[in-house]
């Protein structure tokens, strides 16, 4: 239910974008479909980072409260356990919203896909992951949760 609620709440900002393009047409030469392509890539990258790296936000708390010892005794990598420590299923809603918007934009743009474009899309999402991860976990990053 939280994933569905998060999907609906975060989808409202795309509706706002759609209303802007409906009212003003093209903005600085970009159509709604082109902006939606970028929007989808950014939200997919942000959702992946937001869902999987929350465990590193609470890492100092784990060490301070001596809960990190429990992680060290488990047979899995500490990094892998840190990645999944605070996984929040509600973040899946943002991911699916980005995916739906991305597929809609690809469909509406009627692009001819080549191997270069597929790699560009994949590496854009990966690059967005690194960018958002560095901003979320830097002391002066976007926010600290």
Automatic annotation (TrEMBL):
Alphabetically ordered keywords of this record: Membrane, Transmembrane, Transmembrane helix
One Pfam family of this chain: ABC2_membrane_6
Matches recorded under InterPro entries: ABC-2_transporter-like
Spans through the membrane: 6-24, 36-53, 89-106, 118-136
PANTHER family per record: INTEGRAL MEMBRANE TRANSPORT PROTEIN (PTHR36833:SF1), SLR0610 PROTEIN-RELATED (PTHR36833)
Name used for this protein in its record: ABC-2 family transporter protein
Source organism (scientific name): Tepidimicrobium xylanilyticum
